[in-house]
Amino acid sequence: MLERAAQQIAVEDDDVARRVLLVEAAGEDAPDALDGGEFGGVLCHGVLMYLDDPAPMVDALCALAEPGGIVSIVAKNVEVIAARHAHEGDWAGALAAFDSDRQINGLGVDTRGDSVEKLSAMLTDRGVDPVAWHGVRLFTDGWAPDRPATDPEDLVLQVELTASQRDPYRRLSRLFHLLGRRR
């Protein structure tokens, strides 16, 4: 992934390229790897689901945010783990998933879900105030590449955006995007 990022940076103009620093380190070790640096925006999208315990990563994310900085997390929604099984017609799997926070994802990897409330509390305990959250991939999750498009893509995106901001739709989304601001 770092090699691909380096290739992308190499084609940017110097003004952009000199503002990018690529560092190889475990996310939990990022504060040390970056010598205690703090940033205006810290993103962790699609990572927590692969960790058995999200706390060390959340510690690092919050430590990396400067006062007033944003922490942005996209995580798997534990409240709807059963939905994927049901959409695939795996009713035994759906029934078992109601009492689980784990799931084998589309890549065959064991993953874990989080709740908005739990991650919000973790942020708050670490000096980051949750400011907003949105659902991600409610209607388009599971779309096959060969599914025929009947409407323009911008209309599909508008429906997803609208659903991401409204209950009950956002609560039913496969993922959620949580934003917090460091005190």
Notes on the structure:
With 183 residues, the chain is an alpha+beta fold. The chain has two domains: 1-37, no CATH class; 40-75 and 114-182, Vaccinia Virus protein VP39 (Rossmann fold). It has eight helices and six strands, in the order αααβαβααββαβαβ. The strands form two sheets. It has a four-stranded mixed beta sheet with strand order 1-2-6-5. The chain has a two-stranded antiparallel ribbon with strand order 3-4. β1, α4 and β2 form a beta-alpha-beta unit. α5 (81-87) runs antiparallel to α6. It is globular and about 50 Å long.
Q: What are the SSEs and their pairings?
A:
Layout: H1 2-10, H2 14-17, H3 30-33, E1 39-45, H4 55-64, E2 65-76, H5 81-87, H6 91-97, E3 102-104, E4 110-112, H7 116-125, E5 128-136, H8 153-164, E6 175-182
Parallel strand pairs: 1-2
Antiparallel strand pairs: 2-6, 3-4, 5-6
**Number of helical regions:** 8
Q: Say what the CATH topology of the largest domain is.
A: Rossmann fold
Largest sheet geometry: 4 strands, mixed
Helical percentage = 25-40%
Q: What's the count of strands? A: 6
Structural class call reads alpha+beta
In the predicted model, the low-confidence regions spanning at least 5 consecutive residues are none
Provide the spatial order of strands within the biggest beta sheet: 1-2-6-5
The CATH class label of the largest domain is Alpha Beta
Shape: globular
CATH superfamily of the largest domain: Vaccinia Virus protein VP39
Number of domains: 2
Cα distance, first to last residue? 32 Å
CATH architecture of the largest domain: 3-Layer(aba) Sandwich
Average pLDDT, rounded to a whole number, is 94
Element order: H for helix, E for strand: HHHEHEHHEEHEHE
Q: Roughly how many Å is the radius of gyration? A: 18 Å
Strand content: 15-25%
